[in-house]
Structure formats: structure tokens, C-alpha cells
Amino acid sequence: MEEKIRSILAGILEIxxxxxGERFGxxxxxxxxxxxxxxxxxxxxxxxxxxxxxxxxxxxxxxARIRDVIGRRRGAG
Length: 77
Fold this sequence. Notes:
There is one protein chain. By secondary structure, the protein is an all-alpha fold. About 60% of the residues lie in helices and about 0% in strands. The chain has helices at about 1-15, 35-50, 55-60, 65-75. The radius of gyration is 11 Å and the shape is globular.
């Protein structure tokens, strides 16, 4: 799951997956703008077959939180 999330982020943000650490987020990546954020959310929903809620989306402020939200949702399904 972590590698899949890294791959999605790297592909959309045009960076190397190895550069994505626990606290990687919009504040640490100049390519991560509002349009990129929409693309990331859409790609995550498609890749993991889920529909994220607004509270979940707004809580996903870095890689670790994205992983945690996706992990909780996958565990719940």
C-alpha cells in the first residue's frame, strides 16, 4: 500500500518516490498545488476503490496521514 501511494504521489508531482518521507506534503513540495491535490485524491480513490469524505481529505496533510486514512478505510472494508 505504501509503495502504491508513493507511486501515485511521485507520478502526479513529477518527483522520485524515494524522496517521499513520512512528513512529505504540500509544504515540502512546490509542485503540490490545489490542482495536484485534486488529482492525488482522485487517483487514490480510483487506485484503492474508495470514496473519501471531506473530513478524511482535509486530514491528509502529509504522506503519513494519507497512508493512515487509506489504511483505516481498507481495513474497514
